[in-house]
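Supplementary Methods, section 5.1.

A reviewer requested that the exact input to the structure prediction be made available. We therefore reproduce it here, unchanged from the version used in the analyses.
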Amino acid sequence: MLFTVAYEMLGSASDAEDVLQETWLRWIEVDLEEVRDRRAYLVRITTRQALNRLRAASRRREAYVGPWLPEPLLTAPDVAEDVELAESVSMAMMLVLETLSPTERAVFVLREAFGVGYDEIAAAVDKSPAAVRQIAHRARRHVDARRPRRVVSPSEARAALESFRNAVEARDLQGLLDVLAPDVVLVSDGGGVKRAAVRPVVGAGKVARFYLGGSAKAGFAITCEPTAVNGDPALAVYLDGAFDGVMAVRVADGRVTGLYYVRNPEKLTRVTAETPLTLR
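The structure derived from this sequence is encoded token-by-token as follows.
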């Protein structure tokens, strides 16, 4: 739970792990006889450490090359079955959370994803319970205006993913256009290390030509393996047999509406991990 709190606040598994280490170092110094609610105390420590990192990370991301995407997490199949959890860690939702202030994000994550009480949250973010209620209302309204509206079944998502995969591997432009929604958005994150679009690519035609045109020009053979990251269906993408990145897919009405392609090598170490995370 503490890892997921930190990850949803930070969008980085490596930073979340650092937060847990810092939390542990503080926890082992605590006199447990004086702690009435250990869970609440740990949440408080974790939230404060994550807030410190989030404020520093916000400044670093201003200098990030191209679009920033969360560090993808390889997730177990049961995460997709937990609709609320899957949505809370999805790439689409994590990008919405990026538009909140650090305090708003902490309050939203603790309240909406974990049902933490207002008094507990107030202690974690150094605000009054009344102020936390206002922040939670403001953050919820902000997120509701931007969050994806429709959740699809895992089988529908897998079917769209398979059609997308077949079209990509066959370099089938028409097949790709058929599975992409007209207003599909592609966000690619190369971190200045690998080639990526400097801004989101919008529209089925532009997305198809950007994706197929770049690989064709370079002469790469594309292969994809189905996987799951952040509770969403995804593809591990290989160019000439070498792992290149991971593409999370958002599906609605049987068509792909969002593509989130992480190529930055620094963000891919956990995608190749042998054991998927269950998050709770």
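The mean pLDDT is 88. These observations are discussed further in the main text.
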